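Sequence dictates fold. Below is an illustrative record:

_____
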Amino acid sequence: MVDYIKCCFVLLFAISAVLCENCVTYDFGGNFYRTFNNGNPMCEGMASWSVGNYSSIHVPSPHQDSDQFITPSNVLSCMSSYGFEMQASGTLEVNVYMESTTQQDQLVVLVNEFSTSNKNVVTGTAILTPLSNNYVNGWQSVKIKLYGTDVFNGYITFLGVASPGSTVIIDSFRYIPPKYDDDCHIYDGELVTENPTPTPEPIPTKDCLSYDFESGYDELFKSDRGFCTSFTKWTLGSYSSLPIDPPSAFSQQFISPKPDISCVSSVAFDAVTDGIVEVNVYMESAAESDQITVLVNKIEDEDHDVVTGSTLLTPLHDDYVDGWHTLTITLIGHGSYKGYISFLGLASEESVVVIDSFRYIPPSSSSEACKIYEDDFATTTPVPETTLAPVGSGQECITYNFESDFENTFDTSNVLCNGYSSWHLGNYYSLGIGSIDDDSKTFISPNTTSSCISSFVFRMMPGGTVEVNVFMESVSDLDYVIVLAKKRVPGGVDTVAGFQLYYANNSNFVKGWNVLKVSITDFTIFNGYITLIGSTDESSIVLIDSFRYIPPNTTEDCQIY
């Protein structure tokens, strides 16, 4: 329960306000539904968290005075706390137990400020997921340093998912003001939260995996997992039938897609995070529909896979040139795992689209030690220069679609996306829906587990708006998109300058296309970026086509296409 000795409260229905500059502690021993609610705009339409007893689960209570906790359901669940006074540079600590059976399990903690404009401003955020590099099953103390305008009135929002068979619970939390040096215990004495020391996963010692299509194609590419269950197979061909030279004297055969979408998946192999997949392809395009999509998939369980890397080659990219290309993918995730490669492609009758070979290079190896052929791989296609999107001034429009340069302008390397799977590129030709514009051919889509990616840096200013074009055709409550506008803090923790949640149960949900609008609520012009977090069921369609930043009071048209 709330500690009434250390802090004074005025309780008005479900709203409490701190009247002294001391710590705030809360457990879930009573009055949960008076002090937490599911009815605010952020939680609208989502499932609620529920109260549970330690006597009903296998997890021992962390303290003799703790007998209850809260837990989310198996769909995205949301609850927000009472309001209380907080201060910038204060710390929120949330005591969490997570024992995960799938990568869909997650906890998102948002600290929100009630601003004078009646808009909620996120002043701190943290995410706990089994995809994080430092994740272990058991007790965790999730700590958030707060940002804001000195003293402010705010509240806490918990979003979470607990898959069947998993345990995701919150036992308690506390807020510690800056420079507070008195005791701030939730219970008398410390919490007992012993976790087993994790055993590091072994790194495979195999140097590399290299493959050409000279033999064994039907045996090595017979997998029916993932995306390839309903598509035609790529065709094995010989260079003697084409007007191009093979890249090596030892290369005689290739695979090629058909005029409709073709797909093939390899057998499983051992893969490691930060390993590299390189695919040698040739494209001489006569139609805009020509494409090669490469997906590297992690086998999650018997029925679920996670995309750990992807790339797309299409003549629609601004930097596209006919000829040989080496498509490179750096694998994300955590540790070692069983994975496989899927090739999706389409080639018009007049085009030449082939895959000659590929290789997987683990982090412990090098390209020199992992040759596909005995002689050097010979390609003469020039490599186009890549330029990043302009930062801008904050007073001009920034527009972006995913037609080109996705790998160089979006990444998963920031702290918030640490350990998440990435969004992957797709092409509208492979879906039965129309694109948002005739010039739009490419989109990004999340995986069946939470996916995260962050954009290039551009300048934003207060009162500006980020608009994200989203398509959602949902069959599951696990489908969602979160858009965060982040402010870069050099040498510190990047802060949230605006956000938007979108999910099927929301009363504003519209099947099909929608525009998610994020208002920028910071106080000065800043360098920032957007982070996209999402998840989709295998039978749903969730994709992002493009976005734009619109400065306040602009007279520009701000057209994306």
In short: The longest strand covers residues 151-161. The mean pLDDT is 80. The helical segments are 32-35, 217-220, 406-409. The domain at 398-550 is CATH 2.60.120.200 (Jelly Rolls).
